[in-house]
Amino acid sequence: MIRQQLALVASLLIAMQGLPSAEEAEFARVVRNGDTATLRVFGARPVDLAARKLVDEFALPVNVEDPFYMNLLDLEEVKPPRAAGSGSRLLAPKPSALEIRLDLNADGSLRDARKVVQDLVDTANTRLPFQYRVDADGGVFMLVATRTRDDRGRSVELNPILDRQVSVPLGTRSILEHVQLLTQALGEQTGFHFDCCDSVAGASAWGNTVISFEARDEMARSALLRLIRNAPPSPHQHSRESGRYSWSMRCQPRESSCAINVAPRP
Protein backbone atom coordinates (compact mmCIF):
# COMPACT_ATOMS: atom_id res chain seq x y z
CA MET A 1 0.00 0.00 0.00
CA ILE A 2 2.79 2.39 0.96
CA ARG A 3 4.66 1.58 -2.25
CA GLN A 4 1.55 2.38 -4.29
CA GLN A 5 1.12 5.71 -2.50
CA LEU A 6 4.77 6.61 -3.05
CA ALA A 7 4.47 5.70 -6.73
CA LEU A 8 1.35 7.85 -7.05
CA VAL A 9 3.08 10.83 -5.40
CA ALA A 10 6.08 10.42 -7.68
CA SER A 11 3.91 10.30 -10.80
CA LEU A 12 2.03 13.42 -9.68
CA LEU A 13 5.30 15.29 -9.12
CA ILE A 14 6.52 14.33 -12.58
CA ALA A 15 3.24 15.47 -14.11
CA MET A 16 3.36 18.78 -12.24
CA GLN A 17 6.91 19.42 -13.42
CA GLY A 18 5.64 19.17 -16.98
CA LEU A 19 2.94 21.81 -16.49
CA PRO A 20 3.58 25.16 -18.15
CA SER A 21 4.10 28.27 -16.07
CA ALA A 22 1.38 30.91 -15.92
CA GLU A 23 3.35 33.00 -18.40
CA GLU A 24 3.75 30.08 -20.82
CA ALA A 25 0.06 29.21 -20.54
CA GLU A 26 -1.08 32.71 -21.52
CA PHE A 27 -3.54 32.60 -24.42
CA ALA A 28 -6.28 34.45 -26.29
CA ARG A 29 -8.68 32.49 -28.51
CA VAL A 30 -11.81 33.10 -30.54
CA VAL A 31 -13.96 29.99 -30.99
CA ARG A 32 -16.53 30.52 -33.75
CA ASN A 33 -19.86 28.73 -33.96
CA GLY A 34 -22.02 30.00 -36.79
CA ASP A 35 -23.35 33.47 -36.03
CA THR A 36 -21.77 33.55 -32.57
CA ALA A 37 -18.29 33.17 -31.12
CA THR A 38 -16.63 33.02 -27.73
CA LEU A 39 -13.57 35.04 -26.83
CA ARG A 40 -11.53 33.38 -24.09
CA VAL A 41 -8.32 34.81 -22.63
CA PHE A 42 -5.98 33.94 -19.79
CA GLY A 43 -2.95 35.92 -18.75
CA ALA A 44 -1.40 38.59 -16.59
CA ARG A 45 -3.31 41.38 -18.35
CA PRO A 46 -6.50 39.73 -19.60
CA VAL A 47 -8.19 42.96 -20.74
CA ASP A 48 -5.15 43.83 -22.82
CA LEU A 49 -5.01 40.29 -24.20
CA ALA A 50 -8.68 40.38 -25.15
CA ALA A 51 -8.31 43.77 -26.83
CA ARG A 52 -5.29 42.62 -28.82
CA LYS A 53 -7.22 39.56 -29.97
CA LEU A 54 -10.12 41.75 -31.11
CA VAL A 55 -7.61 43.86 -33.04
CA ASP A 56 -5.98 40.83 -34.68
CA GLU A 57 -9.14 38.83 -35.37
CA PHE A 58 -11.59 41.60 -36.32
CA ALA A 59 -9.39 44.67 -36.96
CA LEU A 60 -11.32 46.44 -34.20
CA PRO A 61 -9.65 49.77 -33.29
CA VAL A 62 -9.31 49.44 -29.51
CA ASN A 63 -6.60 50.70 -27.15
CA VAL A 64 -5.94 49.71 -23.53
CA GLU A 65 -4.44 51.59 -20.59
CA ASP A 66 -3.09 49.61 -17.63
CA PRO A 67 -4.16 50.12 -14.02
CA PHE A 68 -1.58 50.81 -11.32
CA TYR A 69 -0.71 47.59 -9.49
CA MET A 70 -0.49 48.54 -5.81
CA ASN A 71 -1.59 45.46 -3.87
CA LEU A 72 0.88 42.60 -3.53
CA LEU A 73 -1.99 40.10 -3.55
CA ASP A 74 -2.62 41.10 -7.17
CA LEU A 75 1.00 40.34 -8.11
CA GLU A 76 3.38 37.43 -8.34
CA GLU A 77 7.12 37.12 -8.64
CA VAL A 78 8.31 36.05 -12.07
CA LYS A 79 11.59 34.74 -13.39
CA PRO A 80 13.76 37.66 -14.58
CA PRO A 81 15.11 37.64 -18.13
CA ARG A 82 18.66 36.39 -18.63
CA ALA A 83 19.92 39.93 -19.15
CA ALA A 84 18.78 40.96 -15.66
CA GLY A 85 21.02 40.61 -12.65
CA SER A 86 20.85 37.41 -10.62
CA GLY A 87 19.46 39.35 -7.66
CA SER A 88 16.63 40.95 -9.63
CA ARG A 89 13.09 40.53 -8.34
CA LEU A 90 10.43 41.13 -10.93
CA LEU A 91 6.73 41.38 -10.22
CA ALA A 92 3.90 40.80 -12.69
CA PRO A 93 0.11 40.82 -12.36
CA LYS A 94 -1.36 37.47 -11.37
CA PRO A 95 -2.96 35.74 -14.38
CA SER A 96 -6.74 35.87 -14.70
CA ALA A 97 -9.29 34.51 -17.14
CA LEU A 98 -12.06 36.33 -19.00
CA GLU A 99 -14.70 35.09 -21.41
CA ILE A 100 -17.29 36.96 -23.48
CA ARG A 101 -19.78 36.08 -26.20
CA LEU A 102 -19.56 37.70 -29.63
CA ASP A 103 -22.43 38.08 -32.09
CA LEU A 104 -21.30 37.84 -35.70
CA ASN A 105 -22.57 38.88 -39.09
CA ALA A 106 -22.89 36.40 -41.94
CA ASP A 107 -19.40 37.36 -43.16
CA GLY A 108 -17.88 36.64 -39.74
CA SER A 109 -17.43 40.28 -38.70
CA LEU A 110 -18.63 41.68 -35.39
CA ARG A 111 -22.32 42.59 -35.40
CA ASP A 112 -21.98 45.36 -32.81
CA ALA A 113 -18.44 46.49 -32.01
CA ARG A 114 -19.52 48.92 -29.29
CA LYS A 115 -21.44 46.17 -27.47
CA VAL A 116 -18.45 43.84 -27.65
CA VAL A 117 -16.17 46.45 -26.08
CA GLN A 118 -18.72 47.26 -23.38
CA ASP A 119 -19.28 43.56 -22.63
CA LEU A 120 -15.52 43.10 -22.22
CA VAL A 121 -15.31 45.99 -19.76
CA ASP A 122 -18.41 44.88 -17.83
CA THR A 123 -17.02 41.35 -17.51
CA ALA A 124 -13.60 42.65 -16.40
CA ASN A 125 -15.17 45.01 -13.85
CA THR A 126 -17.09 42.08 -12.36
CA ARG A 127 -14.27 39.55 -12.19
CA LEU A 128 -11.08 41.58 -11.70
CA PRO A 129 -9.95 43.78 -8.79
CA PHE A 130 -9.79 46.71 -11.22
CA GLN A 131 -12.35 48.91 -12.97
CA TYR A 132 -12.31 50.19 -16.54
CA ARG A 133 -14.33 52.68 -18.53
CA VAL A 134 -14.89 52.90 -22.28
CA ASP A 135 -14.01 56.07 -24.17
CA ALA A 136 -14.88 56.38 -27.86
CA ASP A 137 -13.63 58.81 -30.47
CA GLY A 138 -14.62 58.51 -34.12
CA GLY A 139 -14.94 54.73 -34.08
CA VAL A 140 -11.83 54.18 -31.95
CA PHE A 141 -12.35 52.67 -28.49
CA MET A 142 -10.14 53.21 -25.46
CA LEU A 143 -10.34 51.00 -22.37
CA VAL A 144 -9.13 53.13 -19.47
CA ALA A 145 -8.38 51.75 -16.00
CA THR A 146 -10.13 53.91 -13.38
CA ARG A 147 -9.85 51.94 -10.11
CA THR A 148 -7.38 49.58 -8.44
CA ARG A 149 -6.68 48.07 -5.00
CA ASP A 150 -4.36 49.80 -2.57
CA ASP A 151 -1.91 48.12 -0.18
CA ARG A 152 -4.75 47.41 2.27
CA GLY A 153 -6.99 45.85 -0.36
CA ARG A 154 -9.39 48.79 -0.62
CA SER A 155 -10.80 49.80 -3.99
CA VAL A 156 -9.45 53.26 -4.76
CA GLU A 157 -10.00 55.66 -7.62
CA LEU A 158 -7.24 56.24 -10.15
CA ASN A 159 -6.37 59.38 -12.02
CA PRO A 160 -5.62 57.85 -15.44
CA ILE A 161 -2.28 59.04 -16.77
CA LEU A 162 -3.60 59.95 -20.21
CA ASP A 163 -6.43 62.02 -18.69
CA ARG A 164 -3.88 64.71 -17.88
CA GLN A 165 -3.59 67.87 -19.94
CA VAL A 166 -0.38 68.37 -21.91
CA SER A 167 1.08 70.94 -24.28
CA VAL A 168 3.39 70.24 -27.20
CA PRO A 169 4.88 73.33 -28.89
CA LEU A 170 4.08 73.85 -32.54
CA GLY A 171 6.73 72.36 -34.76
CA THR A 172 7.48 70.13 -37.73
CA ARG A 173 8.96 66.91 -36.43
CA SER A 174 8.64 63.16 -36.78
CA ILE A 175 5.59 61.68 -35.04
CA LEU A 176 7.93 59.89 -32.66
CA GLU A 177 9.53 63.20 -31.64
CA HIS A 178 6.09 64.69 -31.00
CA VAL A 179 5.19 61.68 -28.86
CA GLN A 180 8.42 62.02 -26.91
CA LEU A 181 7.55 65.64 -26.12
CA LEU A 182 4.08 64.50 -25.04
CA THR A 183 5.41 61.79 -22.71
CA GLN A 184 8.02 64.20 -21.38
CA ALA A 185 5.20 66.56 -20.38
CA LEU A 186 3.41 63.64 -18.70
CA GLY A 187 6.58 62.70 -16.86
CA GLU A 188 7.00 66.21 -15.50
CA GLN A 189 3.47 66.06 -14.09
CA THR A 190 3.52 62.52 -12.71
CA GLY A 191 7.14 61.66 -11.98
CA PHE A 192 6.74 58.60 -14.21
CA HIS A 193 9.17 57.49 -16.89
CA PHE A 194 7.60 56.61 -20.24
CA ASP A 195 8.96 54.49 -23.05
CA CYS A 196 7.01 54.82 -26.24
CA CYS A 197 6.83 52.85 -29.37
CA ASP A 198 9.67 50.45 -28.73
CA SER A 199 7.97 47.87 -30.93
CA VAL A 200 9.27 47.63 -34.48
CA ALA A 201 5.86 48.59 -35.86
CA GLY A 202 5.57 51.60 -33.62
CA ALA A 203 9.07 52.92 -34.25
CA SER A 204 9.16 52.59 -38.03
CA ALA A 205 5.70 52.20 -39.54
CA TRP A 206 4.40 55.52 -38.29
CA GLY A 207 6.98 57.09 -35.98
CA ASN A 208 9.27 58.41 -38.71
CA THR A 209 6.56 60.32 -40.57
CA VAL A 210 7.23 64.09 -40.38
CA ILE A 211 4.22 66.30 -39.66
CA SER A 212 3.38 69.71 -38.21
CA PHE A 213 1.71 69.32 -34.81
CA GLU A 214 0.75 71.27 -31.72
CA ALA A 215 -1.17 70.51 -28.52
CA ARG A 216 -2.43 73.32 -26.31
CA ASP A 217 -3.44 72.15 -22.86
CA GLU A 218 -5.03 69.08 -24.46
CA MET A 219 -5.85 65.72 -22.87
CA ALA A 220 -2.84 63.48 -23.53
CA ARG A 221 -5.03 60.67 -24.88
CA SER A 222 -6.60 62.96 -27.46
CA ALA A 223 -3.21 64.31 -28.54
CA LEU A 224 -1.78 60.80 -28.89
CA LEU A 225 -4.79 59.72 -30.95
CA ARG A 226 -4.38 62.74 -33.25
CA LEU A 227 -0.74 61.86 -33.80
CA ILE A 228 -1.53 58.26 -34.62
CA ARG A 229 -4.25 59.33 -37.06
CA ASN A 230 -1.66 61.36 -38.95
CA ALA A 231 0.36 58.25 -39.65
CA PRO A 232 0.28 56.87 -43.20
CA PRO A 233 -1.34 53.46 -43.70
CA SER A 234 0.69 50.29 -43.94
CA PRO A 235 0.79 48.68 -47.39
CA HIS A 236 -2.06 46.30 -46.47
CA GLN A 237 -4.34 49.01 -45.03
CA HIS A 238 -6.93 51.23 -46.71
CA SER A 239 -6.05 54.92 -46.77
CA ARG A 240 -9.32 56.08 -45.21
CA GLU A 241 -9.42 53.69 -42.26
CA SER A 242 -10.07 55.20 -38.83
CA GLY A 243 -7.60 54.12 -36.19
CA ARG A 244 -5.07 52.34 -38.40
CA TYR A 245 -2.88 51.70 -35.36
CA SER A 246 -3.69 50.66 -31.81
CA TRP A 247 -1.74 51.22 -28.64
CA SER A 248 -1.31 49.44 -25.34
CA MET A 249 0.03 51.21 -22.26
CA ARG A 250 1.51 48.84 -19.69
CA CYS A 251 2.83 50.01 -16.34
CA GLN A 252 5.45 48.14 -14.34
CA PRO A 253 3.94 46.94 -11.04
CA ARG A 254 4.93 49.09 -8.03
CA GLU A 255 7.28 51.17 -10.17
CA SER A 256 6.97 54.62 -11.76
CA SER A 257 7.46 53.33 -15.26
CA CYS A 258 5.09 52.75 -18.19
CA ALA A 259 5.55 51.68 -21.81
CA ILE A 260 3.29 52.64 -24.70
CA ASN A 261 3.46 50.17 -27.58
CA VAL A 262 1.96 50.97 -30.98
CA ALA A 263 1.15 48.39 -33.64
CA PRO A 264 -0.73 48.46 -36.96
CA ARG A 265 -4.15 46.86 -37.20
CA PRO A 266 -4.36 43.97 -39.67
Any overview of this molecule?
The protein has 266 residues and is α+β, with helices and mostly antiparallel strands. The chain folds into 2 domains: 27-158, no CATH class; 160-266, Phage tail protein beta-alpha-beta fold. It is 29% helix and 35% strand. The chain is built from 6 helices and 14 strands. The chain has helices spanning 2-17, 46-58, 113-127, 175-190, 200-206, 220-229, and strands at residues 27-33, 36-43, 62-65, 75-78, 90-93, 96-103, 131-137, 140-149, 155-157, 165-174, 193-196, 210-219, 245-251, 257-264. Strands 3, 7, 8, 9, 11, 13 and 14 form a 7-stranded mixed sheet that branches. A 3-stranded antiparallel sheet has the order 1-2-6. Strands 4-5 form a two-stranded antiparallel sheet. Helix 2 packs antiparallel against helix 3 and helix 4 packs antiparallel against helix 6.
